[in-house]
Specification:
The chain is α/β, with parallel strands linked by helices. Helix content is 28%, strand content 13%.
Length: 286
């Protein structure tokens, strides 16, 4: 088995291709409020030359009442085109940490039909450590017309998620931190119950990388196996708001599992409803 994900590129790889007219580089940095960091502000102060900002709080369905819900294919095409991205570009996304919010953008572009989409290993922090070029100059957006081919079957919505939980027919992988999963730590968003879905398995997204670098695929496979996930069988990934669930999706796709789906509403939706079943503690679901 390959030990390196086909969806991840190194900073050396990216640096050698800066300026390629068919390359689109996106800074997809986003942070939870507790981090006290602002992705757009940091982008405007310093970013990889040629990068444009991918705003998770804007590239979403703002009418859903939930954070970061996938926009309609038409709206996504509009957002992507405004960012200067075509579906056949080589698209590289990064964030300030390495593997936090960038995989969500990776997942969104792939769901909307782009094929050559990659995440920068080490993120912007790794790029800076190598003293590679950065700039605060605004990127000139090239004209684009993103053509969508929406893979709707990669997205799970609430009604189907209820059926999957009730039927216990599909593996559920939850990317949140372990204490949040157990219900021992309050959710960062008000009004949500704590705990997890019955039958879910916990793979905190942070365990899949070290210092912003994605782990060896053999190690990642072991992490999933130890958590009770069969990486060759169908999996639905979830998290707090659909962002870090994409880290798990990236990992599973990297392991060759192409039957991976993402519950877009995630805990922001499930935990805010009064009639969805919630489990606290381990209950054998780790």
């Amino acid at each position: 088995m390959e030990t390196h994900s086909e969806f991840i590129v190194s900073d050396d790889w990216l640096k050698a291709r800066l300026g390629d007219p068919n390359l689109s580089v996106l800074d997809a940095s986003w942070y939870l409020p507790a981090a006290k960091r602002n992705g757009r502000d940091e982008y405007e102060k310093s970013h990889i030359p040629g990068a444009v900002f991918f705003d998770h709080d804007k590239v979403c369905d703002e009418t859903s009442g939930l954070p970061h819900t996938l926009p309609s294919p038409e709206k996504f095409a509009q957002f992507a085109s405004e960012m200067g991205v075509n579906a056949d570009d080589t698209i590289v996304v990064y964030d300030g940490i390495g593997f936090f919010s960038a995989p969500r953008a990776w997942w969104m572009f792939r769901v909307m039909g782009a094929k050559n989409v990659y995440v920068l290993d080490g993120g912007f922090a790794g790029w800076q450590k190598k003293h590679y070029p950065v700039t605060n100059e605004p990127t000139k957006i090239k004209k684009a017309s993103f053509q969508v081919k929406f893979e709707q079957d990669k997205v799970v919505l609430i009604d189907e998620m209820r059926q999957l939980v009730d039927g216990e027919t599909t593996q559920i992988a939850d990317a949140r931190g372990h204490k949040r999963f157990l219900g021992e730590e309050a959710e960062p968003r008000p009004g949500m119950r704590s705990g997890h879905m019955p039958g879910a398995h916990n793979i905190p997204f942070s365990t899949l990388s070290t210092d912003g670098n994605f782990k060896d695929l053999n190690k990642i496979k072991t992490i999933f196996k130890d958590a009770g996930i069969n990486v060759a069988a169908p999996v639905v990934t979830t998290c707090g708001s659909g962002v870090t669930a994409a880290v798990l999706a990236l990992a599973l796709e990297s392991l060759g599992n192409h039957n991976v789906r993402l519950y877009d509403g995630s805990w922001s939706e499930w935990g805010s409803k009064k009639d969805t079943p919630v489990v606290t503690g381990t209950d054998g679901d780790e």
